[in-house]
Amino acid sequence: MKKEPLIIKDQSFTGERALFNTHNAYIENCLFHDGESPLKESSDLKLNKVTFQWKYPLWYVNNAVVNDSRLLESARSGIWYTNHLFMENCLIEAPKTFRRASDITLANCQLPNAAETFWKCKDIKLKDATVKGDYFGMNSENIEVDNLTLEGNYLFDGGKNIVIKNSILNSKDSFWNVENATVINCKIDGEYLGWNSKNLTFIDCEISSLQGLCYIKGLKMVNCKLLDTSLCFEYCEDIDADIVDTIESIKNPSSGVIKCKGYKELIVDENKRGEAKIIVKK
């Protein structure tokens, strides 16, 4: 016989480890004041309209659903070493949330102070999220994103196996050191896009970048616009790019094919490493 969950409603908690090692619980309309690690080592939780005010609220937690809840800025480093977590309609104001966590889904969540968030995590799903902060998603893998609006530099540095759709990304140095990423129907604005990456694909994207798309092995672009993009493709290998507008300037592309409406400047210097073929479409 399935055990009925412990119900905790309309309470305020203070002090370290207030509900440490709690299992099979429904927690509603509660406030966790000062005191670290209030729900550490807990499992099978349902949280609704809960506010966390202090550090490390959901460490080493397994199987939790969190709705209409809030992590204040002071609840920093809030969700580490946690697995199987679903969060919907939540406001996460704390930085450094999510480290070494897995199977994390955020739906309709806002992260206005997301510096150093989602580091070394895996199996991440983001849907209808708004994010502001540098170094988001560093060294994480198996990521699915739909309708993300992000303002912050160094996005997904060192990430693997990433799919992003229908998003707006304002990010310098994004997708550096990435392996296997596909970006679909997105607007991207930021310098030095995609350096030192492998197997990077853009489909139906609008990109603005100074010296972007360089030092990539395996770059595929389908029906993309390069708006205000200059000094691109330097030392890129195995390029398969179909650009629908005129490119400001192309520099030292190493191998592959670039199709475009035209280009204003082609720079090929004595240090080139091979030479890609450029086809101007009629």
Helix and strand topology:
Elements: E1 6-9, E2 12-13, E3 23-28, E4 31-32, E5 43-48, E6 51-52, E7 62-67, E8 70-71, E9 83-88, E10 91-92, E11 102-107, E12 110-111, E13 122-132, E14 141-151, E15 160-165, E16 168-170, E17 179-184, E18 187-189, E19 198-203, E20 206-208, E21 217-226, E22 237-243, E23 246-251, E24 256-260, E25 262-267, E26 277-280
Parallel strand pairs: 1-3, 2-4, 3-5, 4-6, 5-7, 6-8, 7-9, 8-10, 9-11, 11-13, 12-13, 13-14, 14-15, 14-16, 15-17, 16-18, 17-19, 18-20, 19-21, 20-21, 21-22, 22-24, 23-25, 24-26
Q: What attributes characterize this protein structure?
A:
single chain; mainly beta; eight-stranded parallel beta barrel; five-stranded parallel beta sheet; 47% strand; elongated
Low-confidence stretches: none
Compute the CA-based radius of gyration.
22 Å
Spatial strand arrangement across the major sheet: 14-15-17-19-21-20-18-16
Would you list the SSEs in sequence order as H and E? EEEEEEEEEEEEEEEEEEEEEEEEEE
Q: How many strand units?
A: 26
The biggest beta sheet, please?
8 strands, parallel, barrel
Whole-number mean pLDDT? 96
Number of helices: 0
Q: Strand pairing plus helix content: what structural class?
A: mainly beta
Shape, principal axes of CA atoms: elongated
What is the assembly state of the chains in this entry? Answer: single chain
- As a percent range, the share of helical residues equals under 10%
Strand content: over 45%
How far from one another are the termini?
71 Å
